[in-house]
Amino acid sequence: MLRITGLTGGYGEKKIVSDISFHVEKGSMLGILGPNGSGKSTLMKLISGVLPAKSGKVEIDGQPISGFSAKELARKMAVLPQLHAHAFEHTVRETVSLGRYPHQSGWFASWSEADEAAVVEAMGLMNIQQYENTLIDRMSGGEQQRVFVAQALAQDASILLLDEPTNHLDINHQKELLDTIKKQAIEKELTVVSIFHDINLASMYCDGLLLLDGGQIKRMGEPHEVVREQDIEAVYKTRVSNHPHPELPKPQITLLPGITRPAAQALITAADFAVSADHVLYQSPIPLKTVSSAVINAGAGWYRTFMNRHVDNTYECDDSTQEMAKFIEQEGFKPTDTVGMMTAVRTEDAIVKEYQGPFGSVVIAVTAGVGNAVDVSKALDREVKVGTINTWIFINGDLSDEAFIQAMITATEAKSKALHHEAVMDPLTNTIATGTSTDSCLVAATQQGEHLPYAGPVTELGKLIGAGVFECTVEAIRLYREAKKL
Question: What is the model's pLDDT at position 121?
C-alpha cells in the first residue's frame, strides 16, 4: 500500500503542492486530475522521491521511502515520467530491458530467466514485440510511449507511477494501454497512481480520483464524487456537462463551448408537417434535441428529419432497423440525421395539431391503431400481438433533461386516458386497454426560447401535452375505427 501524509514541496523556495494526504490500496488505481500548473507532476516527483519534500512523508507498506536504497526503492516503485530524453540509441528490447536494472547485481551481469520472462511479457502486453530490434528514436511518439510503459511493467514493481501514460496515443491504443494496466493492477495487486489530462479516461479506469487545484486537494473520492459539474467548472474554469457512461457506472463529461454561432431561429408549426399515404414527415431547419423510442435513432440525440412510415400489416423483416435505414435513404434523407418510426395504420389519418401556451407552442402528431390493444396490467396473462400508437410531441422551448422524461410520462398518461375515454378494450382480456404492444413516443425541442425545467401536469407545458395528446389520440382512434368500417 502507498500512503502519503501531509506532503508539501516545490522548487527552491517556491511551494507548489501543499499538505497532500491520501492512500492507495493494492490492486487499486488512483487518477490525479487538475489543470496545467496545478501541481500534478510536482506531486508525482515528490511521491517518487525525485524531488525532496519540504514536509510530510511517503510510505510503502508502512515504511518511509527514505528507508530504502535507490535499488530497493526501484524494485518497489516504477516511474513513467512525462517526457523522455534519449542520450543514446537503444533498441526496443534494450530499452525495455533497462526496467530490469533494479534486479541486477551489475549491468546485465546476472541476466536470468526471470529477467527474460519479464521483458518478453512486458513487450507482449504492450504489443511491441515485433519492434524489439527497432531503434526507439525511429519510432513515433505513440510507439515510444508504449515502449516506456513496457519498461515500467518489466521493472515488476508493486507500485506504478505514471505521468500521462496515454500521451501521444490514438484512442484505440489509449484503451489497450489502460486495459492492460488495469488488468495488471487487479491480477498482480499493483498500486497504480497516474496523472491524466483526459477526465473521462480517468473516470473510466480509476477506482479513485484526486482533483488538484493550486497545489491543494479540491476533491477526492470515487469518480462520481469527483467528476461533478460544479467542481470541474470551478477548477478548470470552463463549462462542462456531466452524464453517465453508457456501459459503466462512471460519470463522463462533455465540454461546452464558450462561444457558439447563433442558431437560426426555428419555430415548429403544424403546417410544416407533410402527411401522405407513405408517411408523416417533418423536416426542421435546425437540429432538434430529441428523445424517442423509434426504430431508427432511438434514445437521445439531435436530429432534423422525423418520419413515421406506413408499412403493410404483413410487414416482416429480419432486420427492420437496416431496412428502415435503406428506405430513408431511398426517400432522399440521411439515416444519421433522421428519427424513423413505423406504423401499419394509415398515415394519411394522422392527427397533427398545434397548441399555444404562455411559454410558446407545442405541436402534437398521433397515429393510432387499436385493433390489437393491450391492457398492460394483463400482459403476463395473454399473448401480445403487434399494434401501434405513435405519439410525437414537438416543443418550441428549451427543455431540461428532466422535462424530456416528464413529457414522455405526461404523454403516456394522456394516451391511456384517451383509450379509456374511447372504451378501447383488450380483445383477449375484455378489460380497458392502456396502449398497444409496440407504441412509440417522441419528444423533440428547439432548445430555444423560454427554459422549461419541468413537463408534469402542474406546469403549463405539461398541461398542453396532456390535453393535446388526449385530444389527438381520441381523434386518431375515431379515424382508425371509421376506416375499419370501410
Answer: 94
The kind and range of the H/E element at 163 are strand 159-163
Lookup result for grid cell 393535446: 468
Cell of 173: 491504443
pLDDT tens-place string over residues 261-309: 666 788 999 999 999 999 999 999 999 999 999 999 999 999 999 999 9
Least confident of 11-20, 253-262, 417-426: 253-262
* Span of 102-116, 317-331, 404-418 with lowest mean pLDDT: 102-116
The single residue listed with the C-alpha cell 507482449 is: 124
What topology does CATH give the domain 270-485? L-amino peptidase D-ALA esterase/amidase (3.60.70)
3-class SS at 343?
strand
Rg (CA), the chain: 31
- pLDDT exceeds 90 at position 469: yes
In this structure, the number of other CB atoms found within 10 A of the CB of residue 376 comes to: 15
Share in percent of the chain as helix, strand, coil (round to 5):
35, 30, 35
One DSSP character per residue, 349-392 reads G-EEEEEE-SS-EEEEEEEE--TT-B-GGGGGGS------EEEE
Whether 2-255 and 270-485 share one fold: the answer is no
Please state, in angstroms and rounded to a whole number, the distance separating the CA atoms of residues 396 and 267.
6
C-alpha neighbours within 13 Å on the C-beta side of residue 33: 26
Question: Which residues in 318-349 are b (16+ Cβ under 10 Å) and which e?
Answer: eeeeeebbebbeeeebebebbbbbbbbbebeb
- pLDDT score for 317: 87
User: Could you give the maximum distance between any two Cα atoms of the chain, in Å?
Assistant: 96
> Which residues in 433-443 are b (16+ Cβ under 10 Å) and which e?
bbbbebbbbbb
Domain ranges of the chain: 2-255, 270-485
Q: Where are the alpha helices (DSSP H) in 397-459?
A: 401-421
DSSP assignment of 20-47 equals EEEEE-TT-EEEEE--TTSSHHHHHHHH
Q: Look up the CATH superfamily of 2-255.
A: P-loop containing nucleotide triphosphate hydrolases (3.40.50.300)
- Please state, in angstroms and rounded to a whole number, the distance separating the CA atoms of residues 72 and 191: 17
Question: What gap in Å lies between CA 3 and CA 159, rounded to an integer?
Answer: 11
Going by pLDDT thresholds of 50, 70 and 90, the confidence category of residue 87 is very low
What is the share, in percent, of the chain residues with pLDDT greater than 70?
96
Question: Roughly how many angstroms between the first and final C-alpha of the chain, as a whole number?
Answer: 79
